[in-house]
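Entry 14. Structure prediction run on the chain below.
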Amino acid sequence: MSSAPPPVPPWWALRFEALASLDPALVGGVDDRADAEVSLVENLLDLGGPARVIDVGCGGGRHAVLLAERGHDVTGIDLSPRLLRVARERWDSRNPGKRGPHWMPGDMRWLPTCGPADAALLLDGAFGLFDDDADHARVLQGIAERLRPGGKLVLQVPNPYHWSGRPRAQHFAPGTLAEGVDVIRTHRFDAERGRIEEKMVCFKEGVRHEPPASSLRAFTPPEVVTLLAEAGFSEVELSGTEGWAVPEEALPLHPTDSVWFWIRAST
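Output returned:
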């Protein structure tokens, strides 16, 4: 009797492994934009001093590293061992010999034991990966269980009202996203599934690379609020952006100009 074929890894496991192996900068760098996003996170959380923070889906650590450098006790969780290695190397290169974030492998649907924390983060498209919304609900419930009473979550999600009418193709010359890598990135909105699909084609040293496409669920504000309430969160506040710029503080949500929703919720 022949054995069943092994399950195919999900797109996010394959995509980010492929990008990180091509060049770690392609999964996002510890750069000025990340620094601006961390400043916004601190503003939204209003913690009043160093705090225990869980960065769920931390990727290459672009936010976790900066939060730890600002004095917070950070735990970064990601499914990918390669990305966690990138995050650890980034910390060590910037802060040799210093104690840094705790890096923990784990699927965000079944978070490893950690906490209780003062705050948790879901940034950079970490929320919306799954085909079944029950998995998204499970993520939020797991985070709520790891926050102290009164703990806060900051969630960044794409605005479907913006993305649905703006298919786009962008070219990034070598040095823009990663040294020596030419990148073509395209986006389209799948209205039937409510998902933003992104494809990347990369050229490095004359060789073409095409990692698996991403497919990110784009929730409307009522859908996100309902998921958060059912997971045990309250005092949900939504803010937006002016185009792609990272705001310095919470801005009113614009129906179509806000590329992202920034959401703060409390347990």
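The domain at 11-161+218-266 is CATH 3.40.50.150 (Rossmann fold).
Filed with the rest of this week's runs.
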